[in-house]
Design brief:
Blueprint (H helix, E strand, L loop, with lengths): L2 E7 L3 E8 L6 E4 L3 H14 L2 E8 L6 H19 L8 E8 L2 E8 L5 E5 L6 E2 L2 E2 L1 H14 L2 E8 L3 H20 L20
Parallel strand pairs: 3-4, 7-10
Antiparallel strand pairs: 1-2, 2-4, 5-6, 6-10, 8-9
C-alpha cells in the first residue's frame, strides 16, 4: 500500500496521522471532536482509505486548532503517500446525495493548492461542532497536500446532511484521483513530466 505517516506537535495540539491510500476503509480516529470523527469515518469508508488519527488539543478553548491541525497533518500524510504520483488518475469528480442535500466535488492532485468552496450551511453548529470549521478543514488540507479542490453545494437544507455529503463526495473524488490508470503504464499524468508540491 501507499502509506503516509505524520506526527505534528505544537503548544496547542498533538496529532498523529497514518493513511493508507490502498486500504479497505478501516477507520480508527479519535480527535476529541465527535462530529469530526464521524466525518473522517465517511472519508475512510467511502474513499476506501485506511485511516488512523489521534489528536489531543486545546478543546477547552474551542475546536479550531484541533480541527485545523488534523487537516494539516492529513494533507501532509496524503502528500507523502502519493509519492511521485506515477500512474495515478490525478483528477477526481463526484457528486454525493444525502437525502435533500447534494454536493459536487472536483479535485486535481496537481501540486497546486487552491480551494473553491461554495457551501451554505444554515446553522452555526451541528452538535457542538462549529460549521465554519468545515471550510477551514478543507483549506488546511489543501494547503499541505497541494491539491486543487472545488466544492459546490447543489442542494440541501439540513446542516448535517450537507456536511456529510461534502465529505462523502470528497472521499469518492479523492479515491478516483489516487487510483491507478492502467493506460498510463506508470507514467506521470502531466505534460510537464512532473507533479510535485514544490
Amino acid at each position: 500500500g501507499r502509506w503516509g505517516e505524520v506526527a505534528r506537535e505544537t503548544k496547542e495540539t498533538q496529532v498523529s496521522v497514518n493513511v493508507n491510500l490502498d486500504g479497505t476503509g478501516i477507520c480508527n480516529c479519535d480527535t476529541g471532536i465527535p462530529f469530526l470523527d464521524h466525518m473522517l469515518d465517511q472519508l475512510s469508508s467511502h474513499g476506501l482509505f485506511d485511516l488512523e488519527i489521534k489528536a489531543k488539543g486545546d478543546l477547552h478553548i474551542d475546536d479550531h486548532h484541533t480541527n485545523e491541525d488534523v487537516a494539516l497533518a492529513l494533507g501532509t500524510a496524503v502528500l507523502k503517500a502519493l509519492g511521485d504520483r506515477k500512474g495515478i488518475t490525478r483528477f477526481g469528480n463526484f457528486s454525493a446525495p444525502l437525502d435533500e442535500a447534494l454536493v459536487h466535488v472536483v479535485l486535481d492532485l496537481s501540486g497546486r493548492p487552491f480551494l473553491a468552496y461554495e457551501v451554505d450551511i444554515p446553522t452555526e453548529r451541528v452538535g457542538t461542532y462549529d460549521t465554519q470549521l468545515v471550510e477551514h478543514f478543507f483549506q488546511s488540507l489543501v494547503n499541505t497536500s497541494g491539491m486543487t479542490l472545488h466544492i459546490r453545494q447543489l442542494a440541501g437544507k439540513n446542516s448535517h446532511h450537507i456536511i456529510e455529503a461534502t465529505f462523502k463526495a470528497f472521499a469518492r473524488a479523492l479515491r478516483q484521483a489516487t487510483e491507478f490508470d492502467a493506460r498510463r503504464q506508470g507514467s506521470i499524468p502531466s505534460s510537464k513530466g512532473v507533479l510535485s508540491r514544490a
